[in-house]
Amino acid sequence: MRPILTFTISPSLPPELEDLRELAMNLRWSWNHETIALFRRLDSDLWEVCNHNPVRMLGNIDQKTMIEAVADEAFLAHLSRVKRDHDQYMAAESSWYKRKHGVEAAPITAYFSAEFGLTECLSIFAGGLGILAGDHLKSASDLGVPLVGVGLLYQQGYFRQFLNQAGWQQEDYAENEFHNLPLTLELRADGQPYTVTVNIGEGQVAAQLWRVQVGRIRLYLLDTNIPSNPQAYRDLTDQLYGGNEETRIKQEILLGIGGYQALRQLGIRPDVYHMNEGHSAFLAVEHVRTLMREHSLSFAEARELASAGLVFTTHTPVPAGHDYFTGDLVQRYLGKIISDLGITFEQFMGLGRREPSNVNESFCMTVLALRLASGSNGVSELHGKVSRQMWQGLWPGLPEDEIPIGHVTNGVHFRSWISHDLVGIYDRYLVPRWREEPSEPAIWARVWRVPAEELWRTHERRRERLVAFARRRLHDQLSRRGASPGELEFANEVLNPEALTIGFGRRFAEYKRAVLLLRDRDRLDRILNNPHQPVQVIYTGKAHPRDNLGKDLIKQIVSAAREPRFRQRIVFLEDYDMAVARYLVQGVDLWLNVPRRPREASGTSGMKAAANGVLNLSTLDGWWDEAWLMAQSANDPIGWAVGRGESYPSIDEQDSVEALALYDVLEREVVPMFYERGSDGLPRRWINSMKASISSLCHFFNTHRMVREYTELFYHPAASATNRLLQNGARQARDIAAWKLKVFAGWKDVNIVRIETDSLSAVKSGDSVTISAWIKLGNLSPADVQAELLFGRVDAKNEINNPVVSIIESTTEIRDGAVKYQVAAVPCCYSGLHGFTIRIRPWHPDLPGASQPPLILWAKE
């Protein structure tokens, strides 16, 4: 039955404990161990029952406990200390951003993402993308970066995972109780909720706004489950990545367009919009539409102005990870918006197609974002390269390494992932500044001062806690399935708290190869069940509900774990979440990651493990390819690589070869080194590798470094470009749009007529040659283009290797309508076969590379 009236009951706290409410409502507690300890001190068992949710905990705590806390001077002193630290943090008096950039007229960045992984009790994330987004906000908070987050508030969020008797993944969608979560419904001055109304096709969808306080950062979430909406629209924000393509496009319209409008209703006018993956790319369209209306601009003019402030991050090299929508869906749900833009439907579809005029091609959100953003990046050095290969067709004729997609390597938020025990060691030996300035290499070099025994005993305690946690978790799993008393008793004995423990926690996608270790089970048996050097593996992870192949991989692992020879050595933990992840990355000895190169964009779980002194064993893909090269150049023994990044003619051959390499590394290097003990019982070489890993990797693979890079390489340049284009009634944006129109119309008449050089028959090293080009520009002028010389050694395939690119300046000499361009002296420094070519491109000094017209003309032989 439905209520005729609803109201919210908030926790009743004694005045002396009222500060607990403020602490609970700010997610800074999720990365502040002292605040967590304060809530645990109230009732440790209830903290666990409430899934680490202080808001729910305060609403369910026994009144007797509260009375006792008021009478406990030590507790009150603890509360006062935590509150004082919280207030100092929120004041942001000494943040990095304030010290480096000040706060006067600081540009605001809006960070849009379909998911945010902030804490396990707020289930609005599915995996790595969401965790990365959550860590991004946390580091932005710590650094004091002026940023606001925008996402969707899912009534059910992502699914809870459980396995049936056959080991097949089942999904359960639990309702999020918004009023028992660290969420605040954003209210207007009259006490009514802020709502935004979005046109989605023929209907209007209303969404109310909730705010999550993430330290100093505000995250706004849109929720459509309100009475004014028809039931179909109330269900729109039910599930993350649920439903079909129709649900997905409606959710992404709500996220991008609704989120954009919500900020404006709140009086927030960002200078920069950061699209974290393509899910929110419709915000770029809404930005163009709004600028057209506010500044009386044409679509082309508003596009230039909008693009200046758009930043896009792509996260996957896997084709299935990019959203595609049919023309019918686009027409149905975006028809009115397209009409407002003043362009045809086909022109709009062209914004999301690799080939704009190909009517058979679907609309891709990634293509839309790449076409409209002034700055785009992958999330590791290798992923940047792979992304340039994937999307090279958007810039036809441009060499792969010049495609304007860069990279900002992902990181992790250390305070969210490093164990409390290790934090104490870092505080003692690294100096406390590591918390605020983890990007300084000198800080992490001090890890060599940590006594080997202290580091190892701390790690052993974490492994013991992991084993105890895994046993409890497995016992609960078996109990839910109706296991026999004997099976439940067995769960209390699995795993050995002293054995070499390998962790694997991933999304179960086929390319991540969770079962690579199971490829030769007899050999695995010999490795795991060596009586003198035992090894054990803890698996965890979810498959997408519609990914039956991923579910089958889980089933294979569960099946292996049930074999008598592996029952003590292999465990699969259900319902992978942030709590499970913390136990795992803090307690295992070795982190296993074996994606099929180059399918992993970055991966961050191994970074979390490394920050806890856990060694990595991984294929050279994603972040580990980068980390491995960094460590090899410094000769640091940070872990192990499976293979050396080779290419294979088939997937089966790649898997076969790399499985053998994995077994070899474990048998010959990993296991012997772990069990190699000195007279004091310490694995000295292993501990040295732990220190080398911490020292070499932690200064770089953290989100403080990552957010600083985004701020200085993307956010500030984008804000400056936006402000420049806005001046004088957006005069420059109008001029650029007119210039592009002229360039596109006149490019057909541009021609490199001929090339002239000195004699090239007897060139010696140390000589220089003069090269000239005669170029007809038609209606364009030399100021509209940039002519470039590419010069370098020629390989066996008749390709110029790593050419040096030089700008060729125009002269005043004109012959037969062609302008003479000349390089007076090209130095010939080395012997061997060399070559050159010339190209000409449109060029406007006020446009970043990604926004230059995708036109290029190469000299013909």
Task: Walk me through this protein's architecture.
- By secondary structure, the protein is α/β, with parallel strands linked by helices.
- The chain has four domains: 15-91, no CATH class; 96-410 and 711-725, Glycogen Phosphorylase B (Rossmann fold), CATH 3.40.50; 426-701, Glycogen Phosphorylase B (Rossmann fold), CATH 3.40.50.2000; 750-858, Immunoglobulin-like (Sandwich), CATH 2.60.40.
- 42% of the residues lie in helices and 18% in strands.
- It is built from 29 helices and 27 strands.
- Strands 1, 2, 5, 6, 7, 8, 9, 10, 13 and 14 form a ten-stranded mixed β-sheet that branches. A seven-stranded antiparallel β-sheet has the order 21-22-25-24-23-26-27, with no helix packed on it. It has a six-stranded parallel β-sheet with strand order 17-16-15-18-19-20, sandwiched between helices.
- A hairpin with a 2-residue loop joins strand 7 and strand 8 (217-223).
- Helix 12 packs antiparallel against helix 29 (703-746) and helix 20 (452-480) runs antiparallel to helix 21 (485-491).
- It is globular.
- The termini are far apart.
- The mean pLDDT is 94.
Query: What is the percentage of strand-forming residues?
Result: 15-25%
Tally of separate domains: 4
Structural class: alpha/beta
Number of helices: 29
Main β-sheet, in a few words? 10 strands, mixed
Q: Roughly how many Å is the radius of gyration?
A: 29 Å
Q: CATH H level of the largest domain: which superfamily?
A: Glycogen Phosphorylase B
- Give me the CATH architecture of the largest domain, please: 3-Layer(aba) Sandwich
Q: Taking all residues together, what is the mean pLDDT?
A: 94
| CATH fold naming of the largest domain | Rossmann fold
The count of β-strands is 27
Report the top-level CATH class of the largest domain: Alpha Beta
Distance between the termini: 80 Å
Give the helix proportion (percent range). 40-55%
Uncertain runs = none
State the shape.
globular
